[in-house]
């Protein structure tokens, strides 16, 4: 028997034990409960799962959740079951599929997690007609768009699957969707434009600074000297990681490398040393950071341009998760962009336009004489104030120095010719 909750606040407390909603969660949940299809763009860690799990326990029937990775599904399943939510996964590795199908048909499931491939299977579509569906939740919804960074053709089959149930609302969720990708997700999944909810991207305690790279070693050493707390320096290649880690180690600070080419044991040891440390610096490729829980990182530096604004936001977002002041410093040079444009030729054709737009957006962030935070937040669909007072451009005022002027001219030349 399913418990009945008086309202969302009561269910939130009873099922999840949380005192309040965060950010736009309440707004998303309200729309879903009113059977209004929605695309919610919320950053990683903002609590997207709750926006379908809570309605799932309140609504009659089963919420069908589409998720791209079996490992992710099993994590979600564990967490949901721990909260007393009646949940199951239906994947090729599950041995209890018959039981799960029975539970779905009997209305004994709040959540049914499936991979997008299921959508193309006739017998799965038939199964859906045998139970009662409360909601379709599409996690990692950017996978439906070729504009996104992780296109999964199977996501395109979700629309016809869902169209067979016109009365069932749809909730698409993603952390990373620029303007193009968002519009595409809405269209591909049949969600009305007014169903878009974006929020929660601002990290006010992070001070953003983006500087021309003239003497990276000196610039990074100065950063280390100014910031005694733990920090991460991202470098584009394993060789550069090794080299920088060696050079910066001479300053007396503990500096360790991290990249996928290191022995798994060394990587694990360096990572635990970093997590435990109050002053260590990790020089790393982008392989470092996912799933690392260290709230007191005081700076994140990029020794070269990251590959997109999304990547920049995600990587800098590892700074200052405790809410205390932190800095994000990017060093860039024109050849970062020249190289990115050269790599375009190797990108599959259908992804090239999206990739080019991503490079251009990053160039705008680097070049802007205006507030970096405002540009970042607008990129993610928010409507921020024009100035933040906590980025280099807001602090150092709009003047553009000689060095940048030279760099800007170079960059414009690259735009015109497409190469250096
Ligand atoms: P996302 O999918 O957006 O990255 P998750 O759904 O995995 O985020 O949630 C991230 C964490 O936030 C989880 O540990 C979750 O339990 C927690 N969380 C979600 N909503 C709330 C809330 N309203 N109050 C407190 N913690 C929350
Ligand atoms: Mg999630």
UniProtKB/TrEMBL annotation:
Residues 219-363 form the Helicase C-terminal domain. Residues 29-195 form the Helicase ATP-binding domain. GO terms for molecular function: 3'-5' DNA helicase activity; ATP binding; DNA binding; four-way junction helicase activity; hydrolase activity; metal ion binding. Keywords: ATP-binding, DNA damage, DNA recombination, DNA repair, DNA-binding, Helicase, Hydrolase, Isomerase, Metal-binding, Nucleotide-binding, Zinc. Its EC number is 5.6.2.4. It is an enzyme of class 5 (isomerase). GO terms for biological process: DNA recombination; DNA repair; DNA replication; SOS response. Its cofactor is Mg(2+); Zn(2+). It catalyses: Couples ATP hydrolysis with the unwinding of duplex DNA by translocating in the 3'-5' direction. The keyword Metal-binding applies. One of its GO terms (cellular component) is bacterial nucleoid. Belongs to the helicase family. RecQ subfamily. This is DNA helicase RecQ. It comes from Novosphingobium hassiacum. The lineage of its organism: Bacteria, Pseudomonadati, Pseudomonadota, Alphaproteobacteria, Sphingomonadales. The chain holds residues 40 to 459 of 632 of the full protein.
């Amino acid at each position: 028997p399913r418990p009945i909750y008086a309202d969302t606040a009561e269910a939130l407390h009873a099922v999840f034990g949380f005192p309040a909603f965060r950010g736009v969660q309440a707004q998303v949940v309200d729309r879903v409960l009113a059977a209004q299809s929605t695309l919610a763009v919320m950053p990683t860690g903002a609590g997207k799962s709750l926006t379908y799990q809570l309605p799932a326990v309140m609504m009659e029937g089963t919420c069908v959740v589409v998720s791209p990775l079996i490992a992710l599904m099993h994590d979600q399943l564990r967490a949901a079951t721990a909260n007393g939510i009646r949940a199951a996964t239906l994947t090729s590795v599950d041995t209890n599929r018959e039981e799960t199908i029975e539970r779905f048909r009997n209305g004994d499931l709040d959540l049914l997690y499936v991979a997008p491939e299921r959508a193309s299977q006739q017998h799965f579509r038939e199964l859906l007609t045998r139970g009662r569906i409360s909601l379709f939740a599409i996690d990692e919804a950017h996978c439906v768009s070729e504009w996104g960074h992780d296109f999964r053709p199977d996501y395109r089959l979700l629309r016809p699957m869902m169209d067979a149930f016109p009365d069932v609302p749809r909730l698409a969720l993603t952390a990373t969707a620029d303007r193009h990708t968002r519009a595409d997700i809405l269209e591909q999944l049949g969600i009305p434009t007014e169903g878009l909810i974006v929020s929660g991207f601002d990290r006010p305690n992070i001070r953003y600074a983006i500087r021309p790279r003239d003497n990276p070693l000196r610039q990074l050493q100065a950063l280390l000297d100014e910031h005694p707390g733990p920090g991460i320096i991202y470098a584009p290649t394993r060789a550069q990681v090794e080299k920088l880690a060696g050079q910066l180690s001479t300053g007396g600070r503990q500096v360790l490398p991290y990249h996928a080419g290191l022995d798994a044991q060394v990587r694990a040891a360096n990572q635990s040393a970093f997590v435990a440390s109050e002053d260590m610096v990790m020089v790393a490729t982008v392989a470092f950071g996912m799933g690392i829980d260290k709230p007191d990182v005081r700076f994140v530096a990029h020794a070269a341009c990251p590959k997109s604004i999304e990547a920049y936001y995600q990587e800098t977002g590892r700074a200052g998760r405790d809410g205390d002041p932190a800095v994000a410093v990017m060093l860039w040079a024109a050849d970062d962009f020249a190289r990115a444009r050269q790599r375009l030729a190797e990108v599959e054709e259908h992804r090239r336009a999206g990739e080019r737009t991503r490079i251009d957006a990053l160039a705008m962030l680097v070049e802007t004489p205006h507030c970096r935070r405002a540009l970042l937040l607008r990129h993610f669909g928010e409507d921020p104030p024009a100035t933040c007072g906590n980025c280099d451009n807001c602090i150092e005022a709009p003047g553009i120095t000689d060095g940048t002027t030279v760099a800007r001219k170079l960059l414009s030349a690259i735009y015109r010719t497409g190469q250096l």
